[in-house]
Amino acid sequence: MRFIKYIPLLVSLVQAKHVVQDWDITYVTTNRGLNQPPRRGVGVNNKLPIPVVRAELGDTLILNVRNSLDVPTSVHAHGILQHGTNYYDGVPMVNGCGIAPGSNFTYEIPLQQSGTYWLHGHAAEQNFDGLQTPLIITDPNDPYPVDEEYLFAVDDWWPITIKESLAILQQPGGLGTPFVYPPQTLINGVFGNLTKPVTFEPEKTYRIRLVSMMSLPLWEFAIDDHELYIVEVDGVLTKPKAVNVVRMAPAQRVSVLVRAKNTVAKNYQYHITVLDEYVPPIPGVYPAQFDGAVVYHPDAPVDIVQSIPSERFDELSIETLEYEPVLVADQSMFLNLTYGFTEEEIPFETINLIAYQDSLVPSLFSALTTGERAINPITYGPQTNTRVLKYNEVVEMLFWSPTELPHPMHLHGHVFQIIERGLVNDTTGASRQRVPDTGFSPLQRDTVHVTQGEYVIARFRANNPGVWNLHCHFSWHIGLGFNMLMVVGPRELQRTMRLPPAVIEQCRIQGIATHGNAAGHNSFNYMGAPDLPFLEAALPEAAAKLAAAGGSI
Fold it and tell me: Measured between alpha carbons, how far is 213 from 175 in angstroms, rounded to an integer?
C-alpha cells in the first residue's frame, strides 16, 4: 500500500513560532478515577493528567516551570536530541542542578525533530507519580500525509508513591515486592475501561500515535481486521512495515498508518492489552484487556473477532526511511544488565555491577570546567560509571541481560541502530538474529527492550557533544541505580558550549558547586566524592525464592 508523498525540494515559508507552556509543578492528591484510595501525585497547575503538548517542526518550546514542590524537580523531553542544548536535557546533577523548591526556571528547546515524544519528570522518578505527558511535533511536509490522527498514551497508576515503592524494594534480603499494591492502567489519562471510540470514514488514512508512559509492563495495540503500517519508531521515520499488532515497552513510541475500509457496513474494535510477561499474574491487572470502538456508522453491527493477535516487535526487519547503512564500530562496550547486593543484602540495579550515584558537581559542569582532565572517566566519579567517547566515533553497545529481569534501555541525546539479538545462554548461535551487513538501513531508536536472558547489539555515532544518560526506563530500576553516563566529545563541548546564567543560578540557589570534578576539586583530589558501594552479584537465598515464586522486579 502506497503512503509516501514525494515533496519537491522547496524553501520552507513556514514561520517558526514559540510554543509557550506555563507549568506550575504541584502536588495533587488523587486516585485518578480508579478504585483505589487517593494518594499524593505530582501534576501541573494542580491537575492530572497533564495536557498533551503539541508543536511543529522548527518551533521553540518555551517551558516556564514553577516548582511548588518541597523537593527539586526537572523536566526531560524524552527523545529530543538537544543538539547544542545539553543543559536543558533535564537530569539533575547531570545536565544541571534541578529546579529548586519555590523557584522558577525556563527551558528553551529548539524542536529540530518531528515525531512522537513525551515530557516527563527526571528528578526522583517523579514521572511515576504523574509528571508526564506526550509531546507531539508535526511536520507540515511529512512524507506520510494523513486525513486525521489519534493518540493513545498508556501509563499505569499505583496506589503507592515511587518513594514508598523503593523503600519496599530495598528491604534486606530482597524480599520486598510492591505488587501487593497493584496498579491500574490509564489510557489518555483515564481508566482503560473508559477508553473512547475512534471514528473512521471510508478510504481515509489515519495515523495512530502510541506512547508508552508505563513504569513497568509491556502492552500491545491492534485493530480488528485492519492492517497497521509502522512508519515511525521513537521519532525516526521508517519504511512502511505491515503488522497486525504493535508491542510497546516503557518509554517507546510508535506511529502506525491505517487505511479505512471502503464501506460503513461494519464497526470494529481496537484493543490495548497489558501483558503479564515478567510480572506476577494479578487478575484484572496482568494481563488486562481494554477494548474501544472503531465506528464507521452508529447503526452498523460490530464485527467481533475470535482472537486478538500478539507477537514481539520485530525491530530487525524494519528499515529507516532515510537510508543509513550499518555502522562500523570503532569500539565496543559490554554492558551487563544485572542486580547486586550489599553485605546487608540490600538490592541495587546495576550496569556492570555499578549502581549509579550522583556526583557533587553536575557532570556536564565537570566536562566544561576540568580542561584536559575531562577526557578521563574518573573525573566524573567511579559511581557514575562514565564512559568518555571521542566525537563522531561509532560505539557498539552489547546489552547483556543474564537474569530473570528485562530492561528497556534508553540513551539520551542519540538514536542507535538495532544490529543483532540472541540468547545469552546460546552456545550454538541458533537464536542469533542479525540485520544484513549491506543494502539495509537498520531501524534507529532511542529505547530498546532487552528481554530476560537476551542480548542486544546496538550502534550509534557519538555526534552530539554533551553528557548523556543511559539507563533502564523501569522507574524502579533507575531509582535503584540502573544508570550510567556517556560523555561525548568533551574537547568539542568545551569549545562550543556556554551555560546559560539561569542554569548556573539554580545550582547557586541550592548551594551546589559548579566547577571541578565529582568531588568539586580542580585537581586529581577526589576526597569527599560519593562512595562506590561494593556489590555482590550472588542472589541471596531469600530473594532467589521470591524470584522463583514470580515476585521479581
Answer: 27
Hey, which residues does 118 pair with through a beta bridge? 78, 134
The 10s digit of each residue's pLDDT in 112-142 is 999 999 999 999 999 999 999 999 999 999 9
Within 10 Å of residue 267's Cβ, how many Cβ atoms?
20
> Which residues on adjacent β-strands are paired with residue 319?
442
Cell 528547546 belongs to residue = 109
pLDDT tens-digit map of 332-364: 999 999 999 998 889 999 999 999 999 999 999
Q: Where are the alpha helices (DSSP H) in 480-550?
A: 490-496, 501-510, 541-548
Q: Are 220 and 305 in contact (CB under 8 A)?
A: no
- What are the grid coordinates assigned to 61, written together? 518550546
319 DSSP 8-state letter: B
Q: Of 444, 217, 163, 478, whose CA–CA distance to 351 is shortest?
A: 478
Cell numbers linked to 516: 571541578
- Residue 335 to residue 332: CA distance in whole angstroms: 10
From CA 333, how far away is CA 527, in angstroms rounded?
29
> Mean pLDDT across the stretch 272-289?
95
pLDDT band at 10 (very low <50, low <70, confident <90, very high): very low
Check: CB of residue 143 under 8 Å from CB of residue 7: yes
